[in-house]
Amino acid sequence: MTGDVRVDRAEPLPDSVRAQLASAGSATVANMLLRRGLRNVIMSGVQPLAAGQPSLVGPAYTLRFIPAREDLDTLTNYASSENLHRRAIEECPPGAVLVIDAFGSTAAASMGDMMAARLRYRGVSGVVTDGGYRDSGAIKETGLPCYQRNNAPKATPVALHPVALDQPVGCGGVAVYPGDVLLGDSDGVAVIPRALAADIAVEAAEAAAYEEFAALEIRRGRSLFGLFPGTAESRQEYDTWVAAGRPGLE
Ligand SMILES: O=C([O-])CC(=O)C(=O)O
Ligand SMILES: [Mg+2]
């Protein structure tokens, strides 16, 4: 079932939505989705490849693997331009996030550095897999923000067979429909249903701004009670702080 969850996927993701989501972070976004009843929105066991890599935001373009079989997953078939793994590298749209469903397997690589360099050149925003990468040091040098479970140096056809592009997948235990918005940061990777992305971005950016105010108050010695989570009174104080130009600590 793809249905109306795909309704907005052809629309470009506005830069303002990208910026709001990046400023808020995956944990705050997960809270905003929880308010709407969505609990399973953070991938399990999927971490940044490089410490300090930039945040990743973009609509999902998906690739699904199943376990390999020796008669099909030969090096000759892997080299073919019909191979869906290789096609994903050429067909993932600029600005999108390539999401690779490796069914959690690190028995072979979801990607190597030649592929990462090509994606970077093509303007893809980044890559997320619930498997792992080979050539991980060289992938870090490309500067492409990437997320994985663990390094996976073996050649892809040893264990992974590509079966689908641009279809719903599972990644890190979370459903990802093409066009859903991915947000990766130092905490992990959140998946935001596309139809909710613009509203979630506004709410998450507001929540992050309130937390900026609350963090200043905590550094001044204030208790969390009555401050975080916010109350009607503390939100008025927040509004006053915003109106005053968001002053820092004296
Ligand atoms: O075997 C492959 O095609 C993947 C790889 O190592 C690379 O992209 O550098
Ligand atoms: Mg390589």
From TrEMBL:
User: What Enzyme Commission number(s) does the record list for this chain?
Assistant: 4.1.1.112, 4.1.3.17
| Keyword entries, A-Z | Methyltransferase, Transferase
| Pfam families the UniProt entry points to | RraA-like (PF03737)
Query: What Gene3D superfamilies would the database entry show?
Result: Ribonuclease E inhibitor RraA/RraA-like (3.50.30.40)
InterPro entries attached here? RraA/RraA-like, RraA/RraA-like_sf
Domain of life the protein comes from: Bacteria
Record's subunit section: Homotrimer.
What is the documented function of this protein?
Catalyzes the aldol cleavage of 4-hydroxy-4-methyl-2-oxoglutarate (HMG) into 2 molecules of pyruvate. Also contains a secondary oxaloacetate (OAA) decarboxylase activity due to the common pyruvate enolate transition state formed following C-C bond cleavage in the retro-aldol and decarboxylation reactions.
Q: What is this protein called?
A: Putative 4-hydroxy-4-methyl-2-oxoglutarate aldolase
Taxonomic source organism: Streptomyces laculatispora
